Structure formats: C-alpha cells, structure tokens
Amino acid sequence: MKDKRRIIPSSVYLNGEYGIKDCFVGVPVVLGKKGVEKIIRLKLDAKEKKEFYGAFKSIKTLINKVKWAT
Question: What is d(CA 27, CA 36) in angstroms, rounded to the nearest whole number?
C-alpha cells in the first residue's frame, strides 16, 4: 500500500530460495507498488530449519495427495 516497501509475511512462489523450488511458501517479503520486490532470506538456526522444512514437507505431501485425487 502506498509503495511503502514494508516487510510482511506472504505466500510466494519460491524458485530456489530457502532450498525450495516450484512451490508457494509463506516467507517474509518486501512488498511495493509492483508486488513482491524481494524475498527476504532469514538465517535460521537448526531448530527453525527443522520446523520450516517439516512444515514445507507436510504441505508438499498434501498438495501431491490433492493432485492425485483430482
């Protein structure tokens, strides 16, 4: 809004960021008048990485189940 370039969490398409490709994942981004201007790469500690990738794997598994069900 109003091109303030604020950092907000948002579900965006990742293409290698955080080691994830071809999936929409919630991460912090800079939003401007043209949409996502930058994906913020946070340094995660071991526990945070485990939780983040565990959540991602669960989402990916669910997406694959939905694909096969349709």
Answer: 11
Asked if 5 and 29 count as a contact pair (C-beta separation under 8 A), the reply is no
What DSSP element (H or E) covers 57? helix 46-69
pTM for the structure as a whole: 0.79
Confidence at 4, pLDDT banded by 50, 70, 90: confident
Residue with tokens 């959540």: 55
Least Cα distance to 40 among 8, 16, 15 occurs for 8
Terminal Cα distance for the chain, rounded:
37
DSSP class of residue 16? S
